[in-house]
Specification:
Jelly Rolls; eight-stranded mixed β-sheet; binds zinc ion; alpha+beta; 18% helix; 591 residues; Alkaline Phosphatase, subunit A
Length: 591
């Protein structure tokens, strides 16, 4: 066995300044903010990461508080579908209307709308009209041959547009311009899901992206019609958007992070700008709508809660080097690897030539910069571990991030660990492992993140499809809100993530964090492939920070090239903008 020890070569352990600001949305009624109005937008099959992979300026305006003067935006890109049904459409759309889970509304699967217990658990539109018969309501749906009338209330202005989302939005825009404008409306658009089933959700197909972007253009007409209302300045709009599920390849509908990581956006005058705390859920939208109208919900026993008032306790730091604990941009010095950032040329003895073969210079960054190659062969265990990493996960509020570039060419029939502190020989053992070759319930084999739980079970996140022979970016982030994020940045520039609840995760194993091995360092399957630009932080990275590192890597810039960037230039404000000139970027940060 050959296991070597990597020193902690860069320790910049500044305390992470949490962006804590909590201020609940207050029930509106007819307040000074104006006459309450609500629009709930339901996009079928919209992955959370579609928000960065697609050009959706209208959604971005809503999310980032830039829709209209006086309007704020709250967003979450780790939203959740309902917990007690698989990621199917009807179950979640019922919840987006009535604010309760499947145990109450009884719709667990598609085409079960007839089972919906709408009398016991009426839609928020019905509840609004019950409270005030003068409130005008509307539910428009474009869902192909389905009869999506889950409201089961003739007082609601229902209309089915088949698959014509454009006609649907034109219709609603016209309604908003006329005397029959609804005070509360739900707008259900099937388009992304329809295309995702045919052409794929992840890895993102061009057709899926086009469908999401077409939805956004159609939404833009509705939003413009709202803003053009003669009475707009006297109105208090709350506009929310979410989805029923995401998707993987051409599928969805199982308990899986690809299906159950969703976008949620809340735009309104009293919404708190920024990333929402925790895991907002799609069924929170109707509850939040009722609160906006000042409806007393105390006896309703809804499962949804009011969202848009509480910010995440974590977010981007001032600079990338905050909390950076280990960093390995490798430079060759004989059989040693030298840290290139700080205290150089302090050699980090990485052991035998098994670890670094100068004839195999496949770095993501330049041909003369070697990457880390975990060598070894069957029966010869090799790997490396991070010094002092055992205690890093012994905290009730996880605070960890790791980014790296991975190049793998082989089909892995075993399950080699790319990074891990988990004992892979014991299923359900504490700790986590990023592995190659495993799969979840219905995904194909790929790159998985697995963690043990207090129930002694393993939870698997992903998988992400392997890009054979190409450098692909990965990141793992654990947040104090018990979110477990797993990212992939692909060679085509698409940036994907999934996020899982980690409330019962046991991330500390008592074993150090290894590269190319499991936590014991004695696992029989080495990761005999390539790693590059490996960085570990003792704080969570925001989505914007992770995307900054990915985008920089595509431009051959390493983490060490980003250390001085002032993130106050808006990594998180910019991450949503995928255009080249938006400048996630290095150049902008160096100004
Ligand atoms: Zn759906």
């Amino acid at each position: 066995m050959t296991i070597v020890r990597l020193g902690s070569v860069l320790r910049i352990g500044l305390a992470f300044a949490a962006l804590a600001a909590v201020s609940p949305v207050q029930a509106a009624g007819k307040s000074a903010a104006g006459k309450p109005k609500v629009l709930i937008i339901m996009w079928d099959g919209c992955r959370a990461d579609a928000i960065v992979n697609c050009n959706v300026p209208n959604l971005r305006k809503l999310a980032f508080g830039k829709w209209q003067p006086g309007y704020n935006g709250a967003w979450s890109l780790c939203g959740k579908s309902i917990d007690d049904a698989r990621g199917y459409s009807f179950a979640n759309h019922a919840s987006m209307l009535n604010g309760v889970m499947a145990a109450k509304h009884d719709v667990y699967f598609n085409h079960q709308h007839a089972r919906c217990r709408a009398k016991e658990w009426p839609s928020y539109l019905t509840r609004l009209m019950d409270a005030d018969p003068k409130i005008k309501t509307c539910f428009l749906y474009a869902c192909g041959p389905c009869d999506w009338n889950l409201c089961a209330d003739d007082r609601v202005h229902n209309k089915n547009f088949g698959l014509d989302c454009t006609g649907e939005c034109d219709y609603l825009a016209k309604l908003y311009a006329g005397p029959d404008a609804p005070d509360a409306a739900s707008l259900y658009m099937e388009h992304p899901d329809d295309v995702g089933h045919k052409k794929g959700y992840y890895p993102t197909s061009p057709e899926y992206i086009a469908a999401v972007e077409e939805n956004d253009r159609n939404l833009g007409k509705v939003l413009a019609a709202i803003a053009a209302r003669p009475t707009f300045k006297d109105e208090d709009w709350l506009i929310m958007m979410s989805t029923d599920h995401g998707g993987y390849h051409t599928m969805h509908g199982w308990r899986d992070t690809h299906s159950q990581t969703t976008p949620i956006i809340v735009a309104g005058k009293r919404v708190v700008n920024g990333q929402m705390a925790g895991f907002p859920r799609n069924m929170d939208m109707p509850t939040t709508a009722l609160a906006h109208f000042g409806i007393d919900m105390s006896a309703m026993n809804l499962d949804g809660r009011v969202i848009g008032g509480e910010l995440a306790s974590w977010g981007p730091a001032k600079s990338i080097d905050e909390g950076l604990a280990w960093y390995f941009p490798m430079l060759a010095k004989g059989k040693y690897l030298v840290n290139a950032v700080k205290d150089g040329p302090q050699a980090v003895n990485i052991g035998d030539e098994e670890y670094f073969n100068p004839n195999r210079l496949f770095s993501n960054f330049a041909t003369n910069k070697p990457c880390l190659w975990i060598g070894g062969c069957s029966g010869t265990v090799v790997g490396a571990y991070l010094e002092d990493s055992v205690d890093m996960f012994l905290t009730p509020k996880p605070s960890f991030a790791m980014t790296m570039w991975v190049r793998t060419s082989a089909d892995a029939n075993e399950e080699p660990c790319i990074v891990a502190n988990k004992d892979m020989s014991r299923p359900g053992s504490p700790g986590f492992a990023m592995t190659c070759g495993d799969h979840t319930e219905r995904t194909g084999p790929g790159i998985c993140l697995k963690f043990g739980t207090s129930k002694g079970e393993d939870v698997k996140i992903g998988t992400f499809d392997v890009e054979k022979g190409k450098w692909t970016f990965y990141a793992i982030v654990f947040t104090p809100e018990k979110q477990i994020w797993f990212y992939q940045g692909r060679s085509d520039g698409k940036f994907h993530w999934v996020c899982e609840r980690g409330g019962n995760a046991l991330l500390a194993s008592g074993l150090p964090l290894h590269l190319g091995q499991d936590g014991t360092g004695a696992y029989k399957y080495n990761y005999s492939q390539f790693l590059d630009d490996i960085a570990v932080w003792k704080r969570p990275l925001s989505i914007g920070e992770v995307k900054l590192i990915f985008d920089a890597g595509r431009k051959k810039k390493q983490v060490k090239d980003l250390l001085k960037i002032d993130l106050k230039t808006g990594a998180d404000a910019d991450f949503i903008d995928t255009t080249e000139k938006a400048g996630i970027g290095i150049e902008k940060g160096k100004k």
